[in-house]
Specification:
Chain lengths: 158, 227
């Protein structure tokens, strides 16, 4: 578990700098340096008066299971939304004012993403995501970015 | 006097009160409001309001749901299609970004783009085609999801499906207006999309919180015009 800072809540009280034993919270980019952060230390989390720092688990609990039939329905609707994204995005290319078509396309993807989250892809580190990547890597052909997928699988399996 | 509630965001129009700030005098009957009057909070059209049961009267018995049409059990899904994979990976990229894992996020994004490039169907890509798919979702896909998630007591799925149904209803109403009024409807107007649930809003400023998912306004983003 490493600490992360919510920049929107941070009011630069800088108490995290006082308490951090390694200087991990003292960076130029406003985020915490995960490589220096001590596993489970949480000194900064408890010290921050703005509640801007929290611990992100390395391993997330598995998502509660969704029934297969429900997943099928969610997937089917998500796929329809992705088809709508395509139709609206293409329509935007020829509209004088493309904004509404663009909005419809964006909205379609956001809904598809949310439906797929409930179909078992809530967090990057869960078993279903790893299994999916493994199967895509095993079946890789053509221009599939296999090296990226392998790197990703390694990073989320640690 | 009666009250009417917006089915998208929950806003209540009370005939007793009117909305004086918007020029609707107290006592104005619902049926006397112009047909193009929209929900002041979320922009939903008038027909998306339901009359609320009067206080003290028993809730009108809902017509017993005609034995739900037993949708044929959906076929077992095959491998994920490119469209699904694109949505899965663009979503996981966002999830990784929230955990401040920028490398992981970038790799998921690359996969999302790879599959996005494989999705072109070559089918009809007009707004009319979009509208047909959308109304099929509302009639079939989303309503089947809604029934199934209720029957399963699956709160997570029901949540996503409820938001998607509301955002789809709004999209459908906007498309209908657009097909009637054309681009004049957008003149001097800003368009906003909630980056969490997909709710679309037309107006000067994004609502303080999303009327559908209640996320604060900084997550509701303006759609810019450049192609």
């Amino acid at each position: 578990m490493h600490a992360v800072r919510n920049i929107r809540l941070c009011t630069k009280d800088c108490l995290c700098l006082y308490v951090c034993p390694t200087g991990a919270s003292d960076t130029e980019n406003g985020q915490i340096d995960f490589s220096k952060c001590i596993e489970g230390c949480r000194a900064c989390v408890d010290a921050c008066v703005s509640h801007a720092i929290s611990l992100v688990p390395q391993k997330f609990p598995e998502q509660q299971p969704t029934r297969e039939e429900m997943k099928t329905l969610l997937r089917r609707t998500a796929l329809s939304k992705m088809r709508q994204e395509e139709a609206a995005a293409e329509a935007a290319k020829t509209a004088a004012d493309p904004r509404l078509a663009k909005a419809l396309a964006q909205s379609s993807r956001i809904m598809a993403e949310d439906l797929m989250r409930e179909a078992g892809f809530m967090v990057p580190q869960n078993a279903q995501t790893r299994e999916l990547l493994q199967s895509l890597i095993a079946d890789a052909q053509g221009d599939f970015p296999k090296a990226d997928a392998e790197k990703l699988l390694d990073l989320i399996s640690r | 006097m009666a009250k009417y509630q917006c089915t998208i965001c929950g806003f209540i129009y009370d005939e007793d009160q009117g909305i004086p700030a918007a020029g609707i005098a107290a006592g104005t009957k619902w049926e006397n409001l112009p047909a193009d009057r929209k929900c002041p909070d979320c922009g939903a059209p008038k027909e998306m309001f339901d009359r609320m049961p009067e206080a003290g009267t028993a809730k009108p018995e809902k017509a017993p749901a005609a034995a739900p049409v037993q949708a044929a059990a959906p076929e077992a899904p095959g491998a994920y299609s490119a469209g699904e994979l694109s949505a899965i990976f663009s979503n996981l990229a966002k999830g990784a970004e929230k955990q401040c894992l920028s490398e992981v996020s970038g790799l998921f994004q690359r996969l999302a783009e790879y599959y996005h490039g494989k999705t072109a169907t070559g089918e009809d890509n007009s707004l009319a085609a979009y509208g047909q798919l959308l109304s099929a979702d509302l009639k079939e896909g989303l309503s089947a999801c809604n029934e199934k998630s209720k029957a399963d007591g699956d709160r997570g799925s029901l949540r996503a499906v409820t938001w998607a149904t509301k955002a789809s209803n709004i999209a459908s109403a906007l498309l209908e207006r657009y097909q009637k009024e054309g681009e004049a409807m957008l003149k001097d107007q800003k368009i906003w999309v909630c980056s969490i649930c997909g709710f679309i809003y037309i107006g000067d400023n994004a609502p303080d919180t999303c009327p559908v998912c209640k996320v604060p306004s900084f997550k509701i983003l303006e759609v810019k015009g450049e192609n």
